[in-house]
């Protein structure tokens, strides 16, 4: 009787472990799919792939302008904010181009280097833009990204999804997939050893 109970408990444990492994593999595949339809397209669409050093030529703040937060937005989404324009010199090519914060900044408003959040307070926005402008004047050189193909004649300060960020996004589902496969393999080995012991 004791032997049968042990065998039954062992089978239940193996079934649970197998379900856990299969669940981890399924979850990792869902995470791969989610990353593939959200982050990867933005990463591949970005043409600012080459890193270089930018040298600030001028950083000016223009008067408040009314610009939409995105193309085709309603009048409620149009809000005024000081327009910061930063012009830099690319050390890789020697070109004088306009600098944008990220890829989204160019799509939201190509006239300004920085687009604040419309939900922010107007005084806070003004103070933040003045701080950003003073930082650009203080730190004259810094790394930036440009388009080596020449499709975009401008530069960005940082990419929304850099290569390291993409690798980090794939790290967790990869670890989960590896752990699930390892659990399944160990369960199968345990079952094989049990059958082999019983046969002998």
Automatic annotation (TrEMBL):
Keyword Transmembrane helix: yes
InterPro entries: K_chnl_Ca-activ_BK_bsu
One of the record's GO molecular function terms: calcium-activated potassium channel activity
Record localization: Membrane
A biological process term (GO) from this entry: detection of calcium ion
Regions crossing the membrane: 20-43, 166-187
Membrane protein topology class: Multi-pass membrane protein
Main location: membrane
One Pfam family here: CaKB
Keyword list, A-Z: Glycoprotein, Ion channel, Ion transport, Membrane, Transmembrane, Transmembrane helix, Transport
GO CC term (a single one): voltage-gated potassium channel complex
Family stated for the protein in its record: Belongs to the KCNMB (TC 8.A.14.1) family. KCNMB1 subfamily.
Protein name, as recorded: KCMB2 protein
Annotated source species: Edolisoma coerulescens
